[in-house]
Write a structure and sequence with these properties.
The protein is built from five helices and five strands; from the N terminus they run αααββαββαβ. The protein is an alpha+beta fold. The chain has a domain of 117 residues. The chain is rod-shaped, with a radius of gyration of 36 Å.
């Protein structure tokens, strides 16, 4: 019949290094008992302190991991909420002859729009939002709500243009810009 150490070694639950260390510790303990030296009380106290310290470190590590998981879950939930708002409030079927240029992920993109939508986007009544390489046209109010959640989602949000009033002192008042002039 093989000893317990040999059985554990054979099963792969321990290594030769650990069995040698255990045997050496056992011999040292027996020698201390024979020589009359009793350090058991201090040794036990040291072991208790080490265990308590290890337990505190493990608890701190677990708390940090739990906090990280909660943050990842909150971020994922926020992205899903933003995506849901964008898909439900987007304005569709606005393709036309006019092109609107904007930047998305440091790339200049063109969006074909009809004249009414183009004018509304320029005047600030509509805004462009982007998520996962998809551009959404939404109302100004929706874009403001999204900006509260994540300002990076809003790509274009122009300031509202007041009714075009002609200033009396404007030297170019006689030279009106035509509506069909595209830049």
């Amino acid at each position: 019949m093989a000893s317990l150490q040999e059985q554990l070694l054979k099963a792969g639950l321990t290594t030769k290094q650990k069995t040698r260390q255990a045997n050496a510790d056992k011999r040292k303990k027996n020698k201390q008992k024979r020589s009359g030296v009793q350090h058991d009380a201090t040794l036990q106290e040291q072991v208790k302190q080490d265990l308590a310290k290890a337990k505190l470190e493990k608890q701190a590590k677990d708390d940090a991991l739990n906090e990280q998981k909660k943050q990842q879950l909150a971020d994922k939930e926020q992205v899903l909420r933003i995506k849901q708002i964008l898909t439900h409030h987007q304005i569709k079927n606005v393709a036309g002859d006019n092109e609107y240029n904007y930047t998305f992920d440091n790339k200049i993109k063109k969006l074909p729009l009809d004249a009414i939508t183009h004018r509304a986007l320029v005047n600030g009544r509509l805004s462009l939002c982007g998520l996962d390489d998809v551009t959404y046209i939404v109302t100004r109010e929706t874009a403001e709500k999204l900006a509260e959640l994540n300002a990076q989602v809003v790509l274009v949000q122009n300031d509202k243009v007041a009714d075009e009033q002609v200033d009396e002192d404007d030297p170019y008042a006689d030279y009106q810009i035509p509506d069909d002039l595209m830049w």
